[in-house]
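Anyone up for a design puzzle?
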């Protein structure tokens, strides 16, 4: 299974482009690219929902330097990353981001391939979040 997940992840890496822009776009089944402000609204709406997670797929060092409040760090570069994503509940909801959108686009494609049904990818990543004047926490 691990080999299959790595093959899926490799395909996502080769087939995806860096995301950007702020228009809501449906990229793949189960995944919607949203602007930072749209993501902020979703986070507020889902506050306290045990079936909702904010995923920061940057490195631990980037996460510690500042992240969206409540985000869980799952580094894209961790050797066990594909297994960790596969272990998540595909029926739950997720907001996903990285620094500028490239890696979150790859992860959202992987999540789509794994039949996740509710993934919101922040186009432009935390850089767009900060540009929109939205808060980060250390």
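Challenge accepted. My sequence:
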């Amino acid at each position: 299974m691990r080999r299959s997940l790595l093959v899926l992840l490799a395909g996502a890496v080769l087939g995806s482009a860096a995301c950007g822009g702020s228009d809501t776009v449906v990229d793949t089944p189960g995944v919607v690219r949203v602007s930072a402000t749209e993501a902020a609204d979703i986070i507020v709406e889902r506050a306290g929902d045990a079936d909702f997670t904010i995923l920061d797929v940057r490195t631990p060092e980037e996460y510690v330097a500042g992240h969206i409040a409540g985000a869980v760090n799952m580094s894209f570069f961790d050797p066990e990353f594909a297994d960790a994503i596969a272990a998540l509940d595909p029926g739950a909801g997720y907001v996903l981001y990285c620094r500028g959108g490239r890696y979150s686009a790859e992860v959202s494609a992987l999540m789509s391939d794994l039949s996740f049904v509710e993934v919101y990818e922040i186009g432009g990543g935390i850089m767009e979040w900060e540009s929109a004047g939205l808060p980060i926490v250390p």
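A detail worth pointing out: The chain has one domain: 2-131.
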